[in-house]
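#structure-requests
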Amino acid sequence: MKEVHVNKIIDAVEELCLTAAYDLGKDVEDCIIASKEKEESEFGKYIFDQILENIRYSREERVALCQDTGAAVFFIELGQDVHIVGGSLNDAINEGVRRGYDKGYLRKSMVIDPVFNRKNTGDNTPAIIHVDVVPGDKLKIMLLPKGGGSENMGKLAMLKPSDGLAGVKKFVVDAVKTAGGNPCPPVVVGVGIGGTMEKTTLLAKKALGRKLGEANPNPQYAQLEKELLEEINNTGIGPQGLGGRITALAVHIEYFPAHITALPVAVNLNCHASRHAEVVL
């Protein structure tokens, strides 16, 4: 049994908050560079140049990529042979968020109650925490800061099985069309298929944490990702919704078995600053 003290988790989460806010992953940056070469609109190319300059400045000057530093969404893989000591996992993650957002002068965006008391909590907690128990003695922590502009453009559909592949593709493409320029394209499109209503939305969110452009290991879903990306990039929405070839950087699909009567599909979008950072303890 491996012991991990909560202080180690707090320190790791604090650093993840800063890294995700200041240093966009190389996978995303490389995809943006490659996408600029494919962009046909001159104004679109100019927008890509501004995005790349913002990435460079943020990394060098240690300032946030975007003023919306997001809700702190965590995907945790907790090895079954890990024993957390000194406190609770959730409390440690929230303390790390509290310290990271304060230390980095990152915007705090969480409100106490969604309807009756929309007062800011003042420290960007509580975090949204998803935990999977897995074999082994490692603790993997992935942070996806989720900005409100892209999150608000998410969609869920409880399709009928008879809607089939054509129904899935139409729903995904229509969701991106409806979003238009609101989620600050070029976007990353996370798609969840299967499970139940809550499972498919979680799959769509989790898909955004995958290394950008990394194909689904199932060749059928990998092909569907390619087809959806092509269709989305034929919509003409373009960078920042101002017209052009590149509306999406990537489409990532995660799937799960479903009930015989159901075909749930969810879309969760990330803006071009598709922030994610992870650590293994």
